[in-house]
Amino acid sequence: MNFKKIINTFGFSPYIFLILLLSGCSTGIESTKTITYSKSERKELTASPEEVFMAGMVPTKLKDWKKGKRFMISDNRAALVLESNSRVWEDSVNIKGKEIMFNRILERPTPGGEHQVVIAFTDGVNEYLYPTGKRINEALENLSSLDIPMLIDLDLVDEYRNKL
Question: How high does pLDDT run on average in the chain?
Fold first, then answer.
């Protein structure tokens, strides 16, 4: 009954307004022209000599690490991601610049019954543990030295130095 009253009062104008409103909805993609690059823009897309050089350098995967692989801690905040079972971290721990070496791979059980990989490093006195949060197969195949925050792979640095 209200519907008939609306039509009698306003006629078909609400419907016409609604049709016009909905027909105006578009994303704009319909009128977008094809994007083309100029010669200078195409030149910018080509790889630079530095990018070509870097593409040839691939960090070793965890499965290929040998005991004694060298790393340098680049920031004191590494204490936030490294666990030390040899000493208690102090509030103002100074580990930036410390050289540590890969020691071994451990597996740590989780509350869910899975085992996750922990990488153990040593400085000759203390042991530093990095929990990866990954299962053994995933860590061995996918994890590289570039995936560990605030550690510099000194073997990779030496490799780059020799290539230069």
Answer: 80
